[in-house]
Amino acid sequence: MEEILKKLISHNIKGDVFFRKGLSTSVTFEANKLKSIETSESSGIGLRVIIDGKIGYSSQYGIHNADWLFEKAVATANIETNLRLPFQLNRKESFLDENLAGLSVEDLTKIGKGIIERILKAYPDIICNLEISKDTGEIIITNTEGVDCKREKSTLGIGVHINRIKGTDMLDVYEEGAVKELDKLDSEKLISKLFNTLEGSKEIAKPSKAYLPVIFTPKAVYVLLLPIISSLNGKIVIMGASPLYDKVWVKVFDEKFSLIEDPFNMEGLASTTFDDEGIPTKTFPLIENGVIGGFYFDLHTASLMGRESNGHGFRGGLNQPSPGLTNLIISPGTQSIRNIIASLDEVLVVDQMMGVGQGNVLSGEFSINVHLGYLYRRGEIVGRVKDTMVAGNAYSALSNILALSKETEWIGGTLNTPYICIPQLTVVSKG
Amino acid sequence: MENIKEVFLRRAKEKKVRYAELRVEESEVNNIAFRGKELEEFSVSSSRGGNIRILGKNGWGFISFNEINSDSIREYFDQVYIASNLITGEPVDIEYLPPVSETVSIPMKRDFRGVPLDEKKELLSEYNEIMLKFNPKIQSTQVRYFDRFTRKYYINTEGTDINQERGDISSVFVALAREGDLVEQYHYSIGGTDGFQIMEGLHKEAIYTAEMAVKLLSTPVIKGREYYVVLDPKLAGVFIHEAFGHLSESDFVYENERLKELMVIGKRFGPEFLNVVDDPTYPGLRGSYKYDDEGTPTHKTYLIKEGILVGRLHSRETAKKMNEAVTGNARAINYRFQPIVRMSNTFIEPKSYSFKNLISDIKYGIYAVGAYGGETSMEMFTFSAQEGYIIENGQIGDLVRDVVLTGNVFTTLQNVEGIGNDLSFSQGGGCGKGGQSPLPVATGSPHIRIRNVVIGGR
Question: Which residues from chain B sit within 8 angstroms of residue A168, using beta carbons?
Answer without folding.
Answer: 262, 379, 410
